[in-house]
Design brief:
alpha/beta, 7-stranded mixed beta sheet, 11 strands, about 35% helix, globular
Length: about 230
């Protein structure tokens, strides 16, 4: 009993130590742009996320075609773009001040053209604006995926963690201006490498998450900062 009494005092610290070794937290970066007045925006069209690796390949630094921000590319499965697009639509639909319009497949060609023209060094917003006008929208949300690597392992142990990188832009149709942008980039790391991010560790229940979970959390964070600057 005396031995247990001594050990019980250390029990919380032992648990925290185990969590730090086995569990996870984030090493993330979200950079939303400045706050923006959306009082004149009522209808938003969400265009499909574009896979940057289809144009540039993997394991290289690639610039965002709209902001010039550089991120490292990596494997992106075919399911990534539909998941991010549908998740973005679902999150936006919870805000009743906006009417959210789903993407039309006929606009993919126009968006792909914008990507192929991005090597000029100047952002070409014309295809996005045209898509917005065609849909009768006040603004256009569009994004690009740079990597979407799933974890290899399970919630308790991984050979390598999930790693996700994407950006997001809001373009006003009336004047053709990009009025907000942000990006999310994270490779999940052990809590022992970043003890200051205990809040995210607790939110994720001390586990290694999937790429989908990582991406959804990134979208929620970006939209939270956009809607509540």
């Amino acid at each position: 009993m005396r031995l247990w009494g001594k050990l019980s005092g250390w029990f919380p610290y032992l648990i925290l130590g185990v969590c730090m070794m086995l569990s996870s937290c984030t090493s993330q970066e979200t950079r939303p742009g400045v706050s923006v007045d959306t009082s004149d925006i009522h209808k938003i069209i969400v265009l499909p996320f574009q896979d940057m690796t289809k144009s540039y390949g993997t394991d290289i630094n690639v610039r965002s075609p709209l902001t010039g921000l550089v991120m490292m590319t990596g494997y992106v499965p075919d399911t990534a773009a539909p998941f991010l697009t549908s998740t973005l639509i679902s999150l936006l639909q919870t805000h009743q001040e906006f009417t959210i319009l789903s993407p039309d497949e006929t606009w993919n060609e126009a968006v792909s053209h914008a990507l192929s023209s991005s090597d000029s060094g100047e952002a070409d917003l014309t295809p996005y604006i045209q898509a917005g006008k065609q849909a009768g929208a006040d603004a256009v949300f569009t994004g690009h995926i740079f990597r979407y690597i799933d974890r290899k392992g399970n919630r308790l142990s991984v050979e390598h963690p999930a790693s996700v990188a994407f950006d997001l832009h809001l373009i006003r149709v009336a004047d053709g201006q990009m009025i907000w942008n942000g990006h999310f980039e994270e490779t999940q790391k052990p809590l022992s490498e970043n003890v200051l991010d205990l809040g995210m560790f607790i939110k994720r229940k001390g586990s290694w998450v999937t790429a989908d979970e990582l991406a959804q959390g990134g979208l929620e964070d970006l939209l939270g900062r956009f809607l509540n600057p």
